[in-house]
Specification:
The complex is a heterodimer of chains A (about 110) and B (about 240).
Chain A: H1 3-24, H2 30-48, H3 52-60, H4 65-112
Helix pairs in contact in A: 1-2, 3-4
Chain B: E1 3-11, H1 18-26, E2 33-41, H2 48-53, E3 58-61, H3 67-81, E4 86-89, H4 100-111, E5 115-119, H5 131-148, E6 160-163, H6 164-172, H7 179-189, E7 194-198, H8 216-235
Parallel strand pairs in B: 1-2, 1-4, 2-3, 5-7
Antiparallel strand pairs in B: 4-6, 5-6
Chain lengths: ~110, ~240
């Protein structure tokens, strides 16, 4: 096993442990952890399987494995960012509704007193 | 029968103007309508809520800052659930003279309209805003003419009276940021009858406008996009 491989495996394991720890501690919700678990698994697979990247990039027809990694990861990051924007928009909407309800309820309580 | 109008006054740090605005609104009730000021305090950090509470009005305190659209919508929801017949938006900064609401009210009654907008550009009297801002408004006028086929000369005017039918619509959807131009598109595509009435406005008596010079570019882009999306949403309901 080469040095870079050991570093890669160690880094992926630490990342996996960190993601799991965040979920266990309740700081990361399961539905958002899904993508992180998937990416750490992928990282671990490719750090063990050395020829894997060459194999997959050949399969798709990308000449350099590095280009394959960049293309795929940037694409995935874009999609995930879009998803997060949708999540934020929905939170924004809910937050607004809550605030409005609270204001109306405060007024009602004051009137009843 | 005497009709109830909710005067919705969104206020964010308006302690210098709020009392005079509330008093002006209270002074215009007549034999045909009773107008009740509803101050929506958008999480002000000054004495807006405290001062407003001493006056004859309803105060709704938002726990977080929602921006003008969210604040006004809170007022609309209140008005709708408390059986008001009409609602009019009056800015908390004193730009909208309360007496103009009387004009809007009779115009709406006379023509059986859903939305009446107070325009400062029909008679071109009183406060006319800066040249750049007028250019911006001209742009939205052209955009509205193009999309909706109606001519609205002052689509950024916040002074607008709406009836109960419109109230039920704005309770469900009202834009958050810079709602005025976008909501005209929303009204028109919901087949509401809209008309403008000439009013005079005054320069704001204190505080700062929510649209500053640096953000005006963002304003134009954001509102254009919002208009475009609202247009798509309502015009091509079936596709989406």
């Amino acid at each position: 096993m080469e040095r870079i491989q050991i570093i890669a495996i160690a880094a992926s394991l630490v990342l996996t442990f960190y993601v799991v720890r965040l979920i266990v501690k309740g700081k990361l919700r399961e539905e958002y952890s899904f993508i992180w678990i998937c990416s750490t698994i992928l990282l671990i697979i490719f750090s063990f399987w050395r020829g894997g990247l060459d194999f997959v990039s050949n399969l798709i027809g990308i000449y350099l494995p590095a280009n394959f990694v960049f293309t795929v990861s940037i694409f995935v990051i874009f999609i995930y960012l879009l998803h997060l924007s949708v999540v934020v928009s929905s939170l924004h909407k809910k937050n607004k509704k809550m605030a409005q309800e609270i204001a109306l309820m405060k007024n009602k309580i004051e009137n009843d007193l | 029968m005497i009709q109830k109008i909710a005067a919705i006054i969104p206020a964010f740090n308006e302690e210098y103007n709020i009392v005079s605005v509330i008093r002006a609104v209270n002074s215009i009730s007549n034999k045909d309508f009773e107008i009740i000021p509803i101050v929506i305090n958008d999480c002000s950090t000054d004495g807006t809520s405290f001062l407003a509470r001493k006056e004859k009005c309803i105060v709704l305190d938002l726990p977080v800052n929602l921006g003008i659209g969210g604040a006004v919508q809170t007022g609309y929801i209140y008005a709708y659930h408390n059986n008001y017949d009409y609602a009019v938006q009056i800015d908390g900064d004193g730009q909208h003279p309360a007496e103009e609401v009387v004009k809007l009210f009779y115009e709406l009654k006379r023509n059986d309209l859903d939305v009446v907008i107070g325009s400062r550009f029909i008679l071109k009297e009183g406060f006319q805003s800066t040249f750049l801002r007028r250019m911006g408004i001209r742009y939205f006028t052209i955009l509205n003419k193009f999309l909706l086929g109606i001519r609205i000369t002052d689509c950024t005017s916040g002074l607008r009276l709406i009836n109960k039918k419109t109230l039920s619509l704005v309770c469900q959807y009202y834009p958050d940021e810079y709602p005025e131009p976008e909501s005209i598109v929303f009204f028109k595509l919901n087949n509401l009858r809209i008309k403008e009435v000439a009013v005079t406005m005054v320069a704001r008596s204190g505080g700062v406008s929510s649209i500053r010079f640096l953000s005006s570019f963002y304003y134009m882009v954001k509102v254009s996009l919002a208009i475009f999306y609202t247009y798509l949403r309502l015009k091509f309901k079936k596709i989406f």
